[in-house]
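Tutorial, part two.
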Amino acid sequence: MKPTPIKAAHWREIWQLIKPFWLSEEKWRAWGMLMVIITLSLSTVYISVLFNEWNRVFYDALQTKNFAVFKSQLIRFTWLALLFILISIYKIYLTQGLQMYWRRWMTRQYMDKWLHHHVYYHTEQQQTVDNPDQRIAEDLNALTSGTLALTLGLLSSVVTFVSFITILWSVSGPLAFTLGGHQFTVPGYMVWFAILYAGLGSLVIWFVGRPLVRLGFEQERFEANFRFGLIRIRENSDAIALYQGEAREAKQLDGRFESIRANWWSIMRISRRLNVASNFYGQFAIIFPILVAAPRYFSGAIQLGTLMQISSAFGEIQGALSWFIDAFNQLANWKACINRLAGFNAAVERHSSKKTAITRQEIPEHALKVQNLSLTIPSGRMLFQPFSQSITTGERVLVVGPSGCGKSTLLRAIAGIWPYGAGDIGLQTGKKVLFLPQRSYIPIGNLMEALCYPEAPDHFSEAQILAMLELCHLGHLQPMLQQQANWSHWLSPGEQQRLAFARALLIKPDILFLDEATSALDDENEQLMYRLLIETLPGVTLISVAHRNSVARYHTRCWRFERPAGEDSAVLNLSPLPQV
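Running the prediction step on this input gives:
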């Protein structure tokens, strides 16, 4: 699959991804849950402030051997700890609930964008988005969970910093020293040490770990490509086995996994350096405040309780200022996910708003009417010269011509999924239209659902369904109506095409397009399918693309595309029906 270029999302694009949910019909519940979560987060910070003050009282009681205070502080610690646990549990519970509400809403929005206007078809045809399934299934999950975790973590860090900076400023006291014969005093010196320590640590972590954003982006793409290759083998197991293509498939899969391995080793090397820096930073932060405050303790300026309070407050401030360091891996993964979603969203929006020179409209007087219609491939090469034709209700038209002249593409343009070209297409107002491609789509599920697609099974009675299976020589499938299976693997190509005809006979379209829909059938079954169409749907307007002359007898007109010698594009001729 063609790789998508890596493009960093700007803050405006990030906001455009995040904002819609918070302004949607879900906004009241979303904001309500968020406010409760923020309140719980602030409550945990407040309890941490109480724990900090508890440190001073508890360790002073130890130093003075005051058993009564010691015992009361143990009781106080117990209820503070229980309250902290209870608040933390419900904060996590509500955060997970909010994340799922957000993910559900975004998944529905992105599925709608991807499925509407045939965007899924156009992006796959042009390979403008790699692995859209991953973007919807995994990246939206990462976006919602990552955004909430990072935002709430940053908020908690800011509030913690504001809450503890005054405590540390007051309890650490001033630092006096002489330099160059001059006396200097630094008030609240532990605050400045904490800011300097966290600032230097953050700078080092950012410098060491910044390649992880790009490598994380690549890793997700390589993983998805490898998974896609495995799925393709499952989907095409029969053909691969017949070609004996196992060695080729193994080589291709090994190549895709080699990309995973090579990129993973790059991630490991960066992560090793990042872990060295972050672990050294984290471990030294345990002893650093005690080392800095020890001179005042040993001089008798502060007691043990104050020393432990300084250590605790320094740890809280250093932890708050280290939010970037602690969250760096999560930030890198979140940013890589944002970049992928921004690219996906841009491609979807581009295809949704793309204009085409082919106009489709409903008309009253003809089943189908095309005027000055010409089609091209995405590169711009014209498939056939402009032509104008109309088909009246009940006519049956056979479309023939050499391979590659645009016959199947013509049906795609009539269906509204081929945007390349120019001209006007009109379909009769209020008529039910159905297209049967050469390879019919059979959804995974029970056979009744597969047969009735895209209609719901309850639109038809079981007796109707059983009768159609019998008519189309599929009586052996009648006992399997409720059986769940991947029917595109269970049924032969001929059975799949007969199932598509049974589907058409059930749905009873007014206008039916067949795109080589009998190519896998033997002559007897092909004749049977066409006879069933004519007899069961006598008023149907039929447009068939076919290579076999044997189906000509079931049509009343012929559109023949011919490619003149030396020309790239075909022209339409109205010729007599081929003789059988």
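The first strand starts at residue 175 and ends at 179. In part three we will examine how such features are distributed along the chain.
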